[in-house]
Design a protein that fits this description.
By secondary structure, the protein is α/β, with parallel strands linked by helices. The protein folds into three domains: 270 residues, Alpha-Beta Barrel (TIM Barrel), CATH 3.20.20.70; 47 residues; 123 residues, Alpha-isopropylmalate synthase LeuA, regulatory domain (Double Stranded RNA Binding Domain, 2-Layer Sandwich). Helix 1 packs parallel to helix 2. The protein is globular, with a radius of gyration of 24 Å.
Length: 516
């Protein structure tokens, strides 16, 4: 029996970014897209072009660099959405427009305020327009999990008739059980009868997203929409790494299907995205969690020592986690070793970026004896919030004597090249630093989230600070990263990084308004 491909549609950059605190800038998204292509993802949903100038720019830049994977933009069943999507993905070697409209009774009545007949009409118009730009058009029945199966068949027939090549059946609110999803996909598979590929997009509200995706594959779905680390709004999406490894490990059940995923890139991809978003997988997360291959029980340890297969159903090396890799970089490491390490960790830098990164690495190596993989990841990702004509931290001095008032003196280089020094007090040292930065830059930020993580071991471990700051109440918060052996210094860098990202987005918005 010949095997059929399960298309892996990764939406980390679109749905995954909707995780609270997971917003990324264009540089970060390009790095992730490049790594997703290395991973072997078939379709990269790079964003929602009509959502913001930042989304449009990121999709457009990704479309220029990704060659093997299909680059996709989401679009509502609206004319402007589809036109923006088409413009954004225009440079891509392989491109797709993914348009959608809600099909459940509750969504049609209360959200869309449309009759079923009008919904079908809008869907057909959207697919027709998308088809005029690209040959590869995906149509999604939003909230299909709560939609009437008869109506689903009706709207699916209509959009296939005008050119939809993939039909996505999302369990948008994550309410269905595996047997229910399986039965629904089986009935639709028999109805569609190879006229289009059936896709599923399962949310994890009941912790069943992966199970539902696997049930769908067993019943005819040949595309799964998923994210790295299960990122996504609310409880997240089906985790790519779990679906792929389930198909790989349980070949006895899934003997008729395969994916193009290079599983040895799973762990590097997971770590890259965790480093960029600041959202770590839970320690006991399947496949990529910190404890996924940790054996503490004496009985387990004894078994693993005798034969790893007693408690490990696959080798960590299969996902690119090589615990025997002892290559630790230090001050004497050369540029070639550094470049090789970056490539292994999933980073793709041009010559100028590589030179800059190597310089920062050498500066760090003078302060820190051993530099580990997570140090390198943070070294690169922390610099991705830097933009041209940005504010730059020159010096920081803190004063917090016992019983005294926390204060900070900060020197910042402005976009015009001017150096400004000021000092201020706060409710704590961090508060004093951030308030002083606000006064120097003239931009008042509201701290929404603050995280500090020690990246390695020892007294010289790097502090990786991730902040989420809102500079305008009418706009979403932005993320900044800061890296230093000194936590206060890392905090200042992270806050400035968030400000620079915000100002960069404002610049893009102004350009779009001017029609540039």
């Amino acid at each position: 029996m010949s095997k059929e491909q399960v298309i892996i549609f990764d939406t980390t950059l679109r749905d995954g970014e909707q995780s609270p605190g997971a917003s990324m800038n264009t540089k970060e998204k390009i790095q992730i897209a490049t790594q997703l292509e290395r991973l072997g993802v078939d379709v990269i949903e790079a964003g929602f072009a009509a959502a913001s100038p930042g989304d449009f720019e990121a999709i457009n830049e990704i479309a220029k660099v990704v060659k093997k994977s299909t680059v996709c933009s989401l679009a509502r069943a609206l004319e402007n959405d589809i036109i923006q999507a088409a413009k954004a993905i225009e440079p891509a070697a392989k491109k797709r427009i993914h348009t959608f409209i809600a099909t459940s009774p509750i969504h049609m009545e209360y959200k869309l305020k449309m009759s079923p007949e009008t919904v079908i009409k809008k869907a057909v118009e959207a697919v027709k327009l998308a088809k005029s730009f690209v040959s590869d058009v995906e149509f999604s029945c939003e909230d299909a999990g709560r939609s009437d199966i008869g109506f689903l068949k009706e709207i699916i027939d209509a959009v296939i008739e005008v050119g939809a090549t993939t039909i996505n059946i999302p369990d948008t609110v994550g309410i269905r059980l595996p047997n229910e999803i399986g039965a629904m996909i089986k009935e639709l598979y028999e109805h569609i009868n190879n006229r289009a590929i059936i896709s599923v997009h399962n949310h994890n509200d009941l912790g069943l997203a992966v199970a539902n995706s696997l049930a769908a594959i067993q019943n005819g779905a040949r595309q799964v929409e998923c994210t790295i680390n299960g990122l996504g709004e609310r409880a997240g999406n089906a985790a790519l790494e779990e679906i792929v490894m389930a198909l790989r490990v349980r070949k006895d059940v899934f003997s008729n299907v395969y994916t193009n995923i290079n599983t040895k890139e799973i762990y590097p991809t997971s770590r890259l995205i965790a480093s960029i978003t600041g959202i770590e997988p839970q320690p006991n997360k399947a496949i990529v969690g910190r404890n996924a291959f940790a054996h503490e029980s004496g009985i387990h340890q004894d078994g693993v020592l005798k034969n790893k297969l007693t408690y490990e159903i696959f080798s960590p090396k299969e996902i690119g986690l090589n615990k025997d890799d002892t290559l630790i970089l230090g001050k004497h490491s050369g540029r070639a070793a550094f470049k090789a390490k970056l490539e292994k960790l999933g980073f793709s830098l041009n010559e100028e970026e590589l030179n800059s990164a190597f310089k920062r690495f050498k500066e760090l190596a003078d302060k820190k004896k051993d530099i580990y993989d997570d140090d390198i990841r943070a070294l690169i990702t922390s610099n991705m919030t830097s933009v041209e004509n940005s504010f730059e931290l020159v010096a920081l001095q803190i004063m917090d004597s016992t019983g005294g008032v926390p204060s900070a003196a900060v020197t910042i280089k402005t976009p015009k090249g001017e150096k400004i020094t000021d000092a201020g007090i706060g409710d704590g040292t961090i508060d004093a630093i951030f308030k002083t930065i606000d006064r120097i830059t003239g931009h008042l930020g509201e701290l929404k989230d603050y995280k500090v993580k020690s990246l390695s071991q020892g007294k010289d471990a790097l502090a990786n600070v991730t902040v989420q700051v809102q500079f305008n109440k009418d706009e979403p918060a932005v993320i900044g990263h800061g890296l230093s052996i000194d936590t206060m210094l890392a905090s200042a860098k992270a806050y400035l990084g968030a400000l620079n990202s915000y100002l960069s987005m404002q610049g893009l918005l102004k350009k779009r308004h001017k029609g540039v």
